[in-house]
Inverse folding.
């Protein structure tokens, strides 16, 4: 049948698991009228719209752990395009993938986001019109979802970011201007789902939020009535949702499946119970009337809308179930309560993101100073860089030092340049000025910022470019006091700003 279509660990800052629930092993999917499923043999099988009995299904790839619209991730974390005559390898070290109308979003195992395809309206968050091979978009991403012409990102701290087309307010920041620049629109979320022209997010209480519209062909006066330019709470007790024009299937936390049909005047009408004991749901077909539904016993069903109702028929069995992983990095540090709201939020958010950790389960030591090596290691982790080899040419760094690879890689990237005597001084506490310089160089490596050096700054000449960039990017204020050593809470505030920028 022809198919179509280095981790650094030390006692203060340690690598943590990601914070929110993630279902990274989707077992059912479809692309137009072609359906894909992973069975218990770990093989990817494909059947077409007319093969309801699964009799002529074809095995197309072995050792598959995840599939999304014909793109499969294998056990060795390689990504394959399975929509043609033969599978074609696309990328390595892949964790998850989402496919839009003509763009692809890839989250790698180091939590970097990559994309390729059409970049109309900035839906890849980049500057060129077309990318034929994957290019890096941003860091610290837990999950990405591709809508028709927009993109949604769930970062490791639980914040939701959007970019791309915004005709229907699906970017959620208050107007309908499209943007290639990611905007943060929600926090404390654990999952995201992309509709054709809508953005959905599920928070830690399983409340479902939405911005955009279910009515993708609305125009004229209907636009203001049928779109939501900022997120609204839509319903409670939601595990997953799959949306097409005016209708959706919603999977509740009790594993019951419901059809929600929407009218032009009401948001929540035509609620129909479909089934219980449901594990997961796939995408709608191209004409929006069919969908695969996987039950907890491994049985696969075809849900089909028909005139005056629907059918729900068993297709096959023996489908492998997804494995949901739940991580919780939330810490209640008792020694940060006297700190400012900004400091507390930065510490909490970076802890959730797995960037920093406390000195214990209940203590963060916010007033403690930090060393140059600790900061360098943290910045490498934030940008998904592994340690290098050798000592970076620093006379005071030996192979026995835990930060030997840190010093080497930091020097290679131009983040840590060392001192005039060619020393790294990894165990020295770091001053605020040195810290700001390192953060600025990290930002410059990751993002292309236009700024003008302010020669009137009251800082040494070696730091003027770095401080000018930090001010321009909003990492610090023009009147920032850069005297003395940086404390852990002060560092967290600036690092969280960097986290949002990269």
């Amino acid at each position: 049948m022809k198919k179509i279509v280095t981790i650094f660990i030390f006692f203060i800052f340690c690598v943590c698991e990601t914070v929110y629930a993630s279902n990274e092993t989707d077992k059912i999917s479809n692309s137009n009228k072609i359906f894909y499923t992973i069975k218990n043999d770990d093989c990817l099988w494909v059947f077409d719209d007319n093969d309801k009995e699964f009799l002529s299904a074809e095995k197309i790839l072995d050792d598959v752990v995840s599939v999304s619209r014909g793109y499969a991730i294998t056990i060795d974390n390689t990504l394959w395009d399975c929509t043609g005559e033969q599978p074609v390898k696309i990328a390595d070290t892949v964790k998850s993938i989402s496919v839009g109308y003509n763009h692809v979003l890839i989250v790698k195992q180091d939590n970097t986001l990559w994309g390729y395809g059409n970049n109309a309206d900035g839906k890849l968050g980049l500057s060129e019109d077309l990318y034929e091979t994957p290019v890096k978009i941003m860091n610290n991403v837990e999950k990405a979802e591709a809508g028709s012409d927009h993109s949604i990102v769930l970062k490791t701290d639980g914040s939701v970011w959007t970019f791309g087309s915004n005709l229907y307010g699906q970017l959620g920041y208050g107007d309908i201007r499209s943007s290639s620049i990611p905007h943060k629109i929600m926090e404390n979320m654990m999952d995201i789902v992309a509709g054709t022209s809508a953005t959905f997010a599920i928070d830690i209480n399983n409340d479902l939020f939405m911005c955009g519209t279910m009515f993708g062909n609305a125009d004229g006066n209907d636009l203001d009535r049928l779109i939501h330019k900022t997120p609204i709470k839509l319903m409670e007790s939601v595990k997953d949702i799959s949306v097409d024009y005016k209708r959706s299937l919603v999977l509740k936390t009790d594993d019951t499946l419901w059809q929600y049909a929407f009218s032009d005047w009401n948001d929540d009408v035509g609620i129909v119970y479909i089934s219980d004991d449901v594990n997961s749901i796939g995408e709608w077909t191209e004409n929006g009337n069919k969908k695969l539904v996987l039950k907890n016993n491994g049985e696969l069903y075809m849900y089909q809308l028909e005139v005056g109702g629907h059918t729900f028929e068993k297709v096959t069995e023996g489908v492998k179930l997804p494995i949901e992983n739940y991580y919780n990095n939330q810490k209640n540090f008792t020694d940060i309560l006297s700190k400012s709201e900004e400091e507390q939020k930065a510490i909490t958010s970076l802890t959730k993101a797995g960037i920093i950790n406390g000195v214990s389960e209940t203590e963060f030591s916010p007033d403690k100073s930090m060393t140059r090596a600790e900061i360098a290691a943290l910045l490498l982790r934030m940008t998904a860089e592994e340690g290098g080899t050798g000592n970076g040419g620093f006379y005071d760094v030996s192979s026995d030092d835990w930060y030997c690879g840190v010093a080497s890689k930091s020097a290679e990237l131009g983040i840590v340049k060392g001192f005039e005597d060619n020393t790294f001084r990894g165990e020295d506490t770091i001053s605020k000025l040195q810290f700001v310089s390192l953060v600025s160089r990290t930002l410059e490596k990751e993002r292309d910022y236009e700024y003008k050096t302010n020669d009137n700054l009251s800082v040494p000449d070696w730091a003027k470019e770095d401080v000018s960039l930090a001010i321009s990017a909003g990492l610090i204020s023009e009147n920032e006091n850069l005297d003395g050593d940086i404390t852990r809470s002060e560092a967290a505030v600036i690092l969280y700003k960097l986290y949002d920028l990269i």
